[in-house]
Structure formats: structure tokens, C-alpha cells
TrEMBL record:
Gene Ontology MF term list: G protein-coupled receptor activity; olfactory receptor activity
Topology versus the membrane: Multi-pass membrane protein
Known role: Putative odorant or sperm cell receptor.
Name the UniProt record assigns to this protein: Olfactory receptor
Positions of transmembrane segments: 25-48, 60-79, 99-120, 140-164, 204-226, 238-261, 273-292
Family of this protein: Belongs to the G-protein coupled receptor 1 family.
Keyword Membrane (UniProt): yes
Stored InterPro entries: GPCR_Rhodpsn (IPR000276), GPCR_Rhodpsn_7TM (IPR017452), Olfact_rcpt (IPR000725)
PANTHER family linked: OLFACTORY RECEPTOR (PTHR26453)
The species this protein was found in: Odocoileus virginianus (White-tailed deer)
Residue stretches making up the G-protein coupled receptors family 1 profile domain: 41-290
Gene label: LOC110133398
Predominant localisation class: membrane
């Protein structure tokens, strides 16, 4: 394929499911509804965490960060996706693609680190309960949150710069819904071994290592809980980290499926549905998971809505 710089002027074409217009109309309706629910649910989590004194805890401090992150993440992707579903125009400007890749990569990487920090919070609460208040003091909470956000966007900066330094093929057609790094690498007109290796390193740093640390944390949690003699005590201990564990499984499960899979036509079409789930569905489920499984959150939400929680 011929190399070109035309994409810097004309932008990119995001194919999505352009060969299935009826499916796109269905997705337009479904994604719109889920996006609205995502905005409402995550905004509610932030508000109840801020206004309810009972929720001024380390867990809800990090959950507020997670909800704000999900609001930003879906807003960086979904409006463009809905526009593409709406009609035949599937284009995104060069600048828009750069911003979308930078923001989505930064927020996705931040979420990996943030979920790891939340696992450490649950480890401290269950495995070292007598020292929990001393360990998770307000200054440390702010430092851990800052670490998650800064490290996420540092990695995103490096990856975005490397991707858009590649000479791209003249067709500049991206076979995805969004400006995802693997899809952009595929339309490069040079050997991309170096960038693919860089993507593998980033996957290890932001996916494999955080997931490993989370598993180690939960291994320690399970060992500690099994030492508790009462059934009620075990149930309560597992209940405090059940919501986080469900979110981890959903997030890392889809993330690893997108970035770690063989390349073929079948898996490319399959990965588009995974991208939809990862960018649209998962952020909408987080508030539901945390509120349904936590009595304090349900109580605070009812208070916020002006209902009597008794």
C-alpha cells in the first residue's frame, strides 16, 4: 500500500458494523439507553459518596474516582460511536482520533491501576483490620489516586505519540468503532514489530502486573477469611469485597480478550462486540453492582432521592 500523510487532513473512517445497517440502528437505540444510564448511575455514586457522611471511607473515595473515570471514558467514546451508528458518515478527524486514543488509553490504564489500589484497600481492611485506619489515611488515599491517574496518562502519552508517528496507508480505514491502538497499527505501511512489542510491554505493565497484584491480594484475603470460625463473619468479610471482585472480572476479562487473542477475521468481528461491552456496558454496570450489594450505598441513594430509607 502507498504511504500517505493525507490522514492528517482527512481523518479516518471507522467501519464498525457499516456492512450491517440494521444492526447499527438497533445498536444506536441500545447504546443510547445504556449511555444515559451510565451517566445517571455514576453521577449518583459520586453525589452519594460526597454528601453522605457514612460513605466518607477509603472504599468510596476510590469508588468516586472510578465513577468519574467511567463518566469520562464513556463520554470520550460513545458520542462519536452514536454519530457513526446514526448515518453513513463514519469519519473522525485526525485530531479527534488522536484525542480519543489518548484519552481512552489514559483512562483505561488509570482504571487498571485504580482497581489494583482498591484491591489493596480491601486487603488492608480484611487482613489488617486493627491497623486499617492508620494505613489508609487521607494523605495516602490522595497519593494512591494521584499515582493511578498520573501513571495511566504517562503511558497513554508514550503510546499515542508512537502510534501517530507511523506512516499510514492511503485508505486510512480503521476496522473498529473507535480509534483503538491495535486497529490503528494494522493500517500502518511499515514494519510495526517495534510498536507491537511496545504494546505487549504496555499490556504487561497495565494489565498483567495489576491483575497479578489483585490476585495476590485476594489470595491473602481468602486465606484470612478462612481462618474466621463463624459463618456469619466469613459471609460479611467476603461481602465487603464481592462487588470489587465482580468489577475486576468484568473489566479485566474483556480487556484481556481484546488485547490478547489471535488475529483473524472471526476474532476481529468478535472483538468489536467485546469493544462495545468494554466501552459501553461495563461502565454502566459498576454503579449497579456497588449499590445493589451494599446496604449503606442503597441507604445513601434513597436519602439522595428524598425517600425514607427505613
Amino acid at each position: 500500500m502507498k504511504r500517505t500523510n493525507a490522514s492528517t487532513l482527512e481523518g479516518f473512517i471507522l467501519l464498525g458494523f457499516s456492512d450491517q445497517p440494521h444492526l447499527e440502528m438497533v445498536l444506536l437505540l441500545v447504546v443510547s439507553i445504556i449511555y444515559i444510564l451510565t451517566l445517571m448511575g455514576n453521577t449518583a455514586i459520586i453525589l452519594v459518596s460526597y454528601f453522605s457522611p457514612k460513605l466518607h471511607t477509603p472504599m468510596y473515595f476510590f469508588l468516586s474516582n472510578l465513577s468519574f473515570l467511567d463518566l469520562c471514558f464513556t463520554t470520550s467514546v460513545v458520542p462519536q460511536m452514536l454519530w457513526n451508528f446514526k448515518g453513513p458518515d463514519k469519519t473522525i478527524s485526525y485530531t479527534g482520533c488522536v484525542i480519543q486514543l489518548y484519552v481512552s488509553l489514559g483512562l483505561g490504564s488509570t482504571e487498571c491501576i485504580l482497581l489494583t489500589v482498591m484491591a489493596y484497600d480491601r486487603f488492608s481492611a480484611i487482613c489488617r483490620p486493627l491497623h486499617y485506619g492508620v494505613i489508609m489515611h487521607p494523605k495516602l488515599l490522595r497519593q494512591l489516586a494521584a499515582l493511578a491517574w498520573i501513571s495511566g496518562f504517562v503511558g497513554s502519552t508514550v503510546q499515542t505519540v508512537l502510534v501517530f508517528q507511523l506512516p499510514l496507508c492511503s485508505h486510512h480505514v480503521v476496522d473498529d468503532f473507535t480509534c483503538e491502538e491495535p486497529a490503528l497499527i494494522k493500517i500502518a505501511c511499515v514494519n510495526t514489530t517495534f510498536l507491537e512489542n511496545e504494546l505487549s510491554i504496555a499490556s504487561v505493565l497495565y494489565v498483567v502486573i495489576p491483575l497479578g497484584l489483585i490476585l495476590v491480594s485476594y489470595g491473602c484475603i481468602v486465606r484470612t477469611v478462612l481462618k474466621i470460625k463463624s459463618t456469619e463473619g466469613r459471609r460479611k468479610a467476603f461481602g465487603t469485597c464481592g462487588s470489587h471482585l465482580i468489577v475486576v472480572v468484568l473489566f479485566f476479562g474483556t480487556l484481556t480478550s481484546i488485547y490478547i487473542q489471535p488475529k483473524s477475521k472471526y476474532t476481529q468481528n468478535y472483538s468489536k462486540f467485546l469493544t462495545l461491552f468494554y466501552t459501553v456496558v461495563t461502565p454502566s454496570l459498576n454503579p449497579l453492582i456497588y449499590t445493589l450489594r451494599n446496604k449503606e450505598a442503597k441507604w445513601a441513594l434513597q436519602r439522595l432521592l428524598g425517600r425514607d430509607p427505613r
